[in-house]
Hints:
Elements: E1 2-4, E2 7-9, E3 16-19, E4 23-27, E5 30-32, E6 38-41, E7 53-54, E8 61-66, E9 69-71, E10 76-81, E11 84-89, E12 92-94, E13 99-103, E14 111-114, E15 117-119, E16 126-128
Parallel strand pairs: 1-4, 2-5, 3-6, 4-8, 5-9, 7-10, 8-11, 9-12, 10-13, 11-14, 12-15, 13-16
Amino acid sequence: MNICDTSIFGNTDEGILLEDVNHVTIQRCRIYQNSFGISMQPNEEEEDKPVHIVAPKGRSCTVETSECSITKNRWWGICCKSGTNFTDFNSRVSDNWCGGIRIGINWQGRVALEGTTIEYNRGPGLWDEMKHSKPP
């Protein structure tokens, strides 16, 4: 799936919600004033946890963003969990209320940022939860 040159804003929930996908490319998009910026949910329901870019159980996925503006969302701009391989090139993640980029428990996935500007978020700009958890 490719999402290019698009403005996504003013949604009560996620700006982008991806379910059960293998590869997504998001380029030159403005994602702002949503509940979460970019989210992906696994097939199964997880009722009490907010889950964002997350691979379906037992699978991995690849999400690539480039030259995007992910700003002023009510929670995290981007959140990576579960088997997600996430790469960003030259995007701006700013002014999100909870924080910029959250790297959750992500045992199989890799996260790479290149030329990414993370600034003026109300919470941490970059939060790596891996150091607070133990492998399954």
